[in-house]
Design goal:
This is Hydroxypyruvate/pyruvate aldolase. The protein has 14 helices and 14 strands. The protein is an alpha/beta fold. It has 2 domains: about 5-245, TIM Barrel, CATH 3.20.20; about 255-350, TATA-Binding Protein (2-Layer Sandwich), CATH 3.30.310.50. Strands 1-2-3-4-5-6-7-8 form an 8-stranded parallel beta barrel, surrounded by 8 helices. Helix 2 (about 30-35) runs parallel beside helix 3 (about 55-65). Bound molecules: the ligand O=C(O)C(=O)C[C@H](O)[C@@H](O)CO. The site of the ligand O=C(O)C(=O)C[C@H](O)[C@@H](O)CO has 8 residues, from helix 9.
Length: about 350
């Protein structure tokens, strides 16, 4: 009886695109929910999520029972860590921050038993062999391990062609976020230079015959990657899905409640000037419409202000969301207008 077949590895070898999702909740219950979605693979993130071997194992267990395949990302590519992940029964691993062919070769050795590799032999204790219930595990395990590595900085990209010659690396994942950071575009993986480097790298990986992979939430980039021949594509992240939908649902709930609104006025002959100054000042942060007589400024937070200028006064209506801080918003509006009206005695009276 051989080691369990790695259907994910087989699909990559056959060039069949596999759509996956990053799961970073670091919780088996959440992983079990994700596993009902039907993704081909789920990346259990041991690098950026608060996971340890135990939590990785619990998530792998619940995913294995579904139609999805677990792929575990290690925090870093250490031989002893790989040994533990494989003995725990993980068959597909993703190793971050690979930047040389020597490093890739060491990782290949780490996932293989002697004489080809250095994986320690402990299968009699290991879940991977079903605790020695799989008699042929030792001689069949290597073939079912899928080793995926991440190239995600300038050094790795420079060594990519040599890395792609390393036998035993089943796929190479380009990490846009970390590559962007190393390219001087921290937080801006969508920068044209970064996207160009990513697509060039993916094309080289595909041309080498190895599987190419990436995580991107951008639908256009996802389409482009599949057109390039990417075969392990992660299109979502559970944490961001959950966080964004919770925030949106909280806002839509509060939208059922009345806004907090207050009016105010200031006697001045420069009402139109100050109105236009305030609208221009906040035009880069919020949604702004104005002319010489009236203006509206709205922010994503729910804070907004309407202004009307006459020849003698500036009239204001300030509002915040039901849970917003109206007093703080009034102070912000007052402070900005006082700064613009520094040449005169300017008092803004609120009708609260
Ligand atoms: O560099 C990248 O991009 C990745 O390796 C994926 C990120 O680590 C993932 O956390 C999403 O930002």
């Amino acid at each position: 009886m051989p080691a369990p077949q790695n259907v994910f590895k087989a699909a990559l070898k056959a060039g069949e695109p596999q759509i996956g999702c990053w799961i970073g909740m670091a919780d088996a219950y959440a992983a079990e929910i994700a596993a009902t979605a039907g993704f081909d693979w789920l990346l259990v993130d041991g690098e950026h999520a608060p996971n340890d071997l135990r939590s990785i194992l619990e998530q792998v267990r619940v995913i294995e029972g579904s139609g999805s395949v677990p792929v575990a990302r290690l925090p870093i590519g250490e031989t002893w860590m790989i040994k533990q992940y494989l003995d725990a029964g993980v068959q597909s691993i993703l190793v971050p921050m690979v930047e040389s062919a020597d490093q890739a070769r060491a990782l290949v050795r780490a996932v293989q038993y002697p004489p080809r590799g250095v994986r320690g032999v402990g299968s009699s204790l290991a879940r991977a062999s079903q605790f020695a219930a799989i008699p042929d595990y030792l001689t069949t395990a290597d073939e079912e391990i899928c080793l995926l590595i991440q190239v995600e900085n300038n050094a790795g990209m420079a060594a990519l062609d040599e890395i792609l010659t390393v036998e035993g690396v089943d796929g190479v994942f380009i990490g846009p976020a970390d590559l962007a950071a190393d390219m001087g575009q921290l937080g801006n993986a969508g920068h044209p230079d970064v996207e160009q480097a990513v697509t060039d790298g993916l094309a080289r990986i595909v041309a080498s015959g190895k599987a190419a992979g990436i995580l991107t939430l951008d639908p256009a980039m996802q389409r482009n990657c599949l057109d390039l021949g990417v075969t392990f594509l992660a299109t979502e992240i559970d944490v961001t899905l959950f966080a964004k939908s919770m925030r949106a649902k909280a806002q839509s709930g509060f939208a059922l409640l009345p806004q907090q609104i207050v009016t105010g006025q200031a006697e001045t002959g420069n009402a139109s000037k100050y109105l236009q100054q305030l609208c221009k000042h906040w035009s880069h942060k919020g949604q702004v419409e104005f002319d010489v007589y009236a203006g509206t400024i709205s922010f994503a937070s729910g804070n907004s202000v309407k202004l009307k200028a006459t020849s003698e006064a500036l009239e204001i209506e300030a509002s915040v969301s039901p849970r917003g801080d109206l007093d703080r918003w009034k102070i912000a509006i007052t402070d900005h207008l006082k700064r613009f009206a520094f040449r005169e005695e300017f008092e803004l009276y609120w009708n609260n």
